[in-house]
Amino acid sequence: MSVRIQYGTGSFGKVISARLLMGTDIIEGIEALCAEQNIESATIVSCIGSFQKSSFVYLVPDDTSSIKVCFSDVIEKEGPLEFIQGSGVVCKRDGAYETHFHGSMSDQWGNVSGGHFIKGGNIVITADIVLAEVQGIQHMRKFDEETGHVQFYPLEQGLAQPRKIEK
Question: How far is residue 139's CA from residue 142's CA, in Å, rounded to a whole number?
């Protein structure tokens, strides 16, 4: 097995603690906080709450793909849902926010589900969020030739390409 990594090094800047209010999409709320605070790149340190509804996808087998997986059709769950946890990175693609966010939730019977959240489809009842600004690294999303999908691309300030480890 090989080790292959692309990375950048930086530091945390300001930390924002916020509560998203009822009716707000979780990703749109996170991006609005970042825009308001002039944050280009961030990590979602903590994120819990409840949803009116949730929309997400997850990986399924796909023999036609070079990486043998693709995303499922969009799964939509009606609430109320307990938002157990969420994590992700606030990124930019072509100058606009494109947050990569995953999470899990449970329904009123304790059934747990989750995956890659769809922007505009995860409406909160309430959500408690802590964001940490990342300085010295641009979090970007770019098309990746190897996977055939848009992927995380952390680019350290002053470098033309991410740092790499290949063993």
Answer: 10
